[in-house]
Write a structure and sequence with these properties.
Blueprint (H helix, E strand, L loop, with lengths): L1 H26 L1 H35 L5 H18 L3 H10 L2 H23 L29
Helix pairs in contact: 1-2, 2-3, 2-4, 3-4, 3-5
Length: about 150
């Protein structure tokens, strides 16, 4: 865990500074700054549009009565992409834009889901089902069925 935090807070900013210096020497200071600002603005717009699409698919899944687990993962990845795109940097922008490409996001989502299932399986000590259990309609009825009417006065 400490190693991951070290990478996140020390190595990534150092790589970003190196990239800024290299690109700044190549195209100039102001074009580099403008490039970062423009990619952030475009990224924010793309994040908004992709996020709204996933929200609509989330609502559609709920309306169909199915658990929207894929939509939740995609929403999480779009949120991460938005944070990366709003963070000043060239490397973070590149990773953020990659997460906004639906096929890439799908593969990352599958890998993330498999990782989480493996971690949860290891934590609980028992196997988890590949698919969530169906809703209450599929539960068998036990005991007598009582027909009742509620009168609210």
């Amino acid at each position: 865990m400490l190693g991951r935090l070290l990478v996140l807070f020390i190595v990534v900013p150092l790589v970003e500074m190196f990239l800024f210096l290299q690109v700044g020497q190549w195209i100039g200071t102001f074009p580099t700054i403008a490039f970062v600002v423009v990619t952030g603005a475009i990224g924010a717009w793309l994040t908004k549009t992709q996020g709204l699409r996933v929200i609509n698919r989330f609502r559609g899944a709920l309306a169909q009565g199915r658990l929207p687990q894929q939509e939740v993962l995609e929403g999480l990845l779009i949120l991460v992409a938005g944070v990366l795109l709003l963070t000043p940097g060239l490397l973070t922008d590149a990773v953020g834009y990659l997460l906004l490409i639906p096929p890439v996001r799908l593969r990352v989502g599958v890998a993330l889901r498999n990782y989480l299932v493996t971690r949860l399986r290891g934590a609980s000590g028992r196997a988890m089902p590949a698919e969530p259990a169906a809703g209450p309609k599929s539960r068998p009825i036990r005991g007598p069925i009582v027909d009742a009417e509620i009168i609210d006065e």
